[in-house]
Fold this protein.
Amino acid sequence: MPEALSKRVRAEGEAALAAAGIAHTTVEEEAAERGDRVSHRPVGGEERSGGSTWQSLARGAGSVETDHLNGEIVLLGRLHGVPTPANAAVQTAVRRAVRDRIPAGGFPLGELEKLVG
């Protein structure tokens, strides 16, 4: 996911959580808590390509956590009057990727941008 979209997804999530009165950590708080205990490094000589959703798509797992993660943000947004178009777009795109067996990283960026609006 492009960095700008990732930031927008997170910002929508933070806004929806705040509107619902649900406490959450900031990026800075998460980094301070983790320190150097979590880092991305090659495994078996291969660079890390993406997070758990990417890995599920790469394995062809048939299901991913997007409906739970992004879907909950979309629901909270709807319940509390917070627009969440980027989270809804990611949820739709990943569902399609699973259904159509689009490989990890293979969903057309232009289509994703159209879904975001």
